[in-house]
Design brief:
Elements: H1 6-32, E1 59-65, E2 68-71, E3 77-79, E4 85-86, E5 91-94, E6 99-104, E7 108-112, E8 117-123, E9 127-141, E10 148-153, E11 159-162, E12 166-172, E13 178-184, E14 186-191, E15 194-199, E16 202-206, E17 216-217, E18 224-227, E19 233-234, E20 238-245, E21 250-253, E22 256-258, E23 265-271, E24 275-284, E25 290-299, H2 310-320
Parallel strand pairs: 9-10, 19-25
Antiparallel strand pairs: 1-4, 1-6, 2-3, 2-5, 5-8, 6-7, 7-9, 8-9, 9-12, 10-11, 11-14, 12-13, 13-16, 14-15, 16-17, 18-20, 20-23, 21-22, 21-24, 24-25
């Protein structure tokens, strides 16, 4: 007969065995597992360089011929020279027979014709905005440069914008007549709520109170009619030169810049000297087409010699005697 105490003796053994087996993983985790690596040292603070202040963009004169002046803060006009800078809200003008070339960074070139005045309204790396008070100016935006060039006309509802690379010329007579001629690219011309696209080789005109004309091809020649006097010899030392050209053109009479009206009419008094005078008239359109006319005028203010007849004087003396 089996001893009933045998299962009782085995129970503690089994319990101990289970406890030992359960303790093995815990012991491995506590005593045999490799300790975790220490945390990495903190990274040194990254030195942040202070932002480099960008130089304000300017237009720099690269060519100056004749009398070119920049309006100073004190209200005085002072002569510009090569290397002079033109900044935002500044004005520049060219006198008769003078011109100037300016560059803005690597993207923009501006040529000012004689008798022109412009002011800078905005100048950034991506946008240039100018106000053309009077005269004629040509803008060039180099291809491959993302730059918007905008010119507004003073005393007129006209804005010309070049979004991509190209070149165009804009004129303003200061009384509402504006013309745009495009040499390269496409120019958006806005006036009186109408938008036209002036493409390369085209030109358009805005007259006072009117919308832009439909763009037309730049003509091969420019209209220039001058009303010369019928007599080449005159006694007066002054000549009134009248004529007509294309609206929006620039006219020079003996080197003096004139502003034609909305129909292209112009007039100027020219001082003459004794003897032979050559009066020169030159017209330039926004398509950069040029036309010239000239006339020789002789001034002779010498009074005519008195003619005397001896027999007439003798007869008059006899008639006067009693």
């Amino acid at each position: 007969m089996a001893d009933p105490r045998a299962p009782r003796r085995q129970t503690p053994f089994l319990v101990g065995l289970v406890l030992i087996l359960a303790a093995l993983p815990l012991g491995w985790f506590v005593f045999l597992r490799e300790p975790p690596p220490p945390p990495p040292p903190p990274l040194p603070p990254v030195a942040v360089a202070p932002p480099v202040a960008k130089r304000p963009l300017v237009l720099e004169f690269t060519e100056v011929s004749g009398t070119v002046e920049v309006l100073q803060p004190d209200g005085a006009w002072r002569a510009a020279t090569v290397g002079t800078s033109l900044r935002r809200d500044e004005k520049v003008r060219t006198q008769d027979g003078s011109y100037a070339m300016l560059i803005g960074g690597e993207a923009v070139e501006i040529r000012m014709d004689p008798g022109t005045e412009i002011s800078v309204e905005e100048l950034t790396e991506s946008v240039s905005r100018l106000l053309l008070a009077r005269g004629m100016a040509t803008a060039v935006v180099k291809s491959g440069k993302r730059h918007t060039f905008e010119v507004k006309a003073a005393n007129a509802d006209a804005v010309a914008t070049l979004e991509q690379g190209g070149a165009f010329t804009m004129s303003n007579n200061g009384t509402g007549t504006v013309a745009v001629g495009t040499r390269e690219g496409e120019v958006t011309l806005v006036g009186q709520g109408k938008v036209v696209i002036v493409r390369a080789g085209q030109q358009a005109v805005i007259r006072p109170g009117q919308a832009p004309s439909e763009p037309a091809a730049v003509p091969g020649s420019l209209l220039l009619k001058v009303d010369w006097p019928g007599e080449r010899t005159r006694r007066e030392r002054e000549l009134v030169v009248r004529g007509q050209t294309e609206p929006g053109s620039r006219v020079e009479v003996d080197g003096v810049t004139l502003i034609p009206d909305a129909q292209g009419h112009f007039e100027r008094k020219v001082a003459l000297r004794e003897g032979r005078n050559t009066v020169d008239v030159r017209a330039v359109g926004v398509g950069r087409i040029e036309q010239r006319d000239r006339q020789d005028v002789v001034v002779d203010t010498t009074p005519p010699a008195l003619k005397t007849d001896t027999q007439d004087i003798w007869n008059q003396a006899n008639d006067a005697s009693p």
